[in-house]
């Protein structure tokens, strides 16, 4: 086995472990606040970057009522019919609507305009159907908050989670001590793949919006703090 393959396997294996105390991905609570209307707010500038990282060639979303899953995958260069790895992020529908989609509208439009300057980029992507391809290794996590960015053709999504127990206690009026943000993983991908992912979300968001009780996403989904 080559040294490069060993390094790749060790890197993915680390995704199966929670960060140890004292690592960069330790639980932090400074970013979390409470808005005047009792919504949970997150100060994006205070969020620490996740220490776990995943390099993705493909990204897609799957949805059924009450269930949203974001998938990221690494292509198997030596076998184009298989994925080397696949990462699944389970994401609450109310958080997808209340934050992921709502807070990315301007970012999405700017990114779309940028990718349109590269009409030939990403042209090979339509030849692949990663949703149908088996993976040599896979891993799953939960997330309910994220931060996206791109610089040139590089893009990333940082995923975080607030524990459901802390959210439930807060909603019931039992204080905010359980609202501690935990970094999960940084997904690195091309700006073209991220734009493709957001484009594909629109019909799913419309369906979630039709079925979600009014105001539900503002009660249970953390919001980005406005400066």
What is the radius of gyration computed over CA atoms, rounded to a whole number of angstroms? 18 Å
Helical fraction equals 25-40%
Rough shape? globular
Got a strand count? 11
Roughly what is the average pLDDT, rounded to an integer? 81
Class per helix and strand makeup: alpha/beta
Gap from first CA to last CA: 52 Å
**Largest sheet entry:** 4 strands, mixed
Q: What is the beta-strand fraction?
A: 25-35%
Brief account:
The chain has 227 residues and is an alpha/beta fold.
General description of the model:
This protein is of the alpha/beta class and 227 residues long. Helix content is 29%, strand content 30%. The chain has 6 helices and 11 strands. The protein has helices spanning 3-14, 93-101, 105-115, 164-171, 191-211, 216-220; strands at 32-34, 40-42, 53-55, 58-64, 67-75, 83-90, 135-142, 145-151, 154-161, 182-190, 223-224. It has a 4-stranded mixed β-sheet. The protein has a 4-stranded mixed β-sheet with strand order 4-5-6-7. The chain has a 3-stranded mixed β-sheet with strand order 1-2-11. Strand 5 (67-75) and strand 6 form a beta hairpin. The longest helix is centred in the last third of the chain and has 21 residues, at 191-211. The radius of gyration is 18 Å and the shape is globular. Mean pLDDT is 81; it is low at 4-29.
């Amino acid at each position: 086995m080559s040294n490069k393959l060993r390094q790749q396997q060790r890197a993915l294996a680390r995704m199966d472990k929670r960060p140890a105390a004292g690592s960069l991905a330790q639980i932090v609570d400074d970013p979390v606040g409470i808005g005047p209307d009792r919504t949970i707010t997150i100060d994006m500038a205070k969020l620490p970057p996740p220490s776990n990282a995943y390099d993705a060639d493909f990204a897609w979303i799957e949805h059924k009522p009450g269930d949203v899953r974001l998938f990221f995958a690494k292509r198997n260069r030596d076998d184009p019919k298989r994925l080397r790895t696949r990462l699944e992020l389970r994401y609450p529908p109310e958080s997808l609507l209340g934050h992921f989609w709502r807070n990315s509208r301007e970012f999405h439009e700017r990114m779309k305009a940028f990718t349109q300057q590269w009409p030939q980029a990403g042209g090979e992507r339509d030849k692949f159907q990663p949703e149908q391809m088996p993976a040599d290794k896979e891993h799953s996590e939960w997330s309910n908050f994220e931060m996206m960015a791109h610089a040139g053709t590089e893009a990333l999504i940082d995923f975080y989670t607030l524990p459901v127990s802390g959210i439930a206690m807060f909603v019931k009026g039992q204080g905010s001590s359980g609202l501690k943000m935990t970094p999960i993983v940084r997904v690195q991908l091309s700006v073209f793949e991220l734009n493709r992912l957001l484009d594909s979300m629109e019909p799913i968001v419309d369906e979630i919006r039709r079925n979600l009780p009014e105001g539900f996403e503002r009660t249970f989904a953390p919001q980005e703090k406005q400066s």
